[in-house]
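Example A, followed by Example B.
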Amino acid sequence: MLKGKKIAVIGGGKMGSIIAQALLEKRLCLKKSVIVTDVDSNRLGFLASTMGILVSSDNKQATKNADIIIVAVKPQNMKETLQDISPVVNESKIIISIAAGITTSFIESFLLKGTRVLRVMPNTPAMVGEGATAVAKGVYATTGDLTMTRAIFDALGLSFEVEEKYMDAVTGLSGSGPAYFFMIIEALIDAGEKVGLARDLAAKLSAQTMLGAARLCLQSDKSPSELREMVTSPSGTTAAGLKVLREGKLRETLLAAVEAATKRSKDLAAGK
């Protein structure tokens, strides 16, 4: 799908470099077809030496020569970046933004009318190929553009099409979600240590248990509640643990956390 396409990643930070690395590791494109830009010359040198890709500090030139431009700059730098590359963006190019809170309409307002723009929200597990990425189309993006964008981000895990109006909810759930699970793992490690396990063993057991449960949830045809019931015997150990979680209002707390993060995403998008 990406054969013959030239890709520019504007912003060689953590997520930008992860995307570039995934494109190469999944053999979606050749090294000579990818260029990453950044303002930090040391960062560019590191990326060139470790990945063997083209690098540059010239966003405009990289954009001019590319078919697909992945804009991986911080939200506060998006306006300046768009103003820089806008003279060389035309309808033949696809613009993919990963900047949180930046709408496709905002991006389109700086570019030639008809420019195909897509907005994505990846999350940090993309670092290990287990990311969850939501993809939304702008006004002019086509179904083919969506398919191509999803192919890129499927290289980092799993991608899902959503309407852009749900992007704040996605941010509150899967964007911020890894931190919720890290906190749960932290608590499980402390609990394991409290009941007598060595901390390093408790850490491995906790993380692997969450990973296994998540994979089972994705691969099984049963719902999470059905899977939970499968491992819960009446008056057994799991039932005893779940009783405490219900009394501690774990479900309600997680609901409130996602709602709070979603609201904050909306506030940030509104400049608050």
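Example B, a separate protein, is given below in the same form.
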Amino acid sequence: MKIAAVQMDVTLGKVDLNLSAIEARLREAAANGAELVVFPECAVSGYCFDSLDEALPFAQPIPGPATEYVSAVCSDLGVFAVFGMLERDGDRVFNAAVLTGPDGVIGGYRKTHLPFLGVDQHVSYGDRAFNVHQAGDVRVGMNICYDSAFPEASRCLTLLGADLIALPTNWPPGAECVASHVLNTRAMENAVYFAAANRVGEERGFRFIGLSRICGPDGSTLAASKDDSETILYAEIDPARSRNKRVVREVGRHAIDRLADRRPDLYGALTEPHSLDRPGDR
């Protein structure tokens, strides 16, 4: 499958304008042969809302108007899309990502790890278990931005069978190391493909750095943006590579399998509640 990561600007609070931009780039990527296209975090709504009350009018249910709009484009083109939006569920709002295809919504994800930044200061913590969804022949898992800083998130998706982890993101200055190194590490340590689509532009004094990247199961860089200009990255992925976790480097002498070689019986500390203060459900 040929995939794409769209690095684009987003306009705060302009849902219709942002959806039109998503459609235009989805059509461009499809015209260039992409079958699955990843867009940035909060691509529908924008990110730097100052309060929950301000963000609430731009949050939508899943499925809802925004997912119906993108799904219609996917149906017209015969492609799949992963994009970020604010999800409304009753009185709660989540920073969410959704996978849509020709037949509508395939699956959604609510951001698990929330930094003290932008709308993440005001939304609720993701409350659903990690999950993997089928997009054609590819099994897709979703994380959002800050989730990539926690290796447990990528590992959970890998154990659930993900071939590709899609990461809609809004990296500000300070995240350059994540863009340049962490994604390759997450791909390599899990033997999966990793596609991060970051936004660009400026919103309420925050600049977004671009540097989107697609990585292969061996940790190699398949495509990368070098700056914060709008662009679309492309890469060919082969699910058979991500499903073969045993890597033989020299027959009879050197082989590794980063799933089979784990020692989960010794990892109990990872699931112990931590003692650090964390804001309550927001």
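On Example B: The helical segments are 15-31, 52-55, 65-77, 151-159, 176-190, 239-243.
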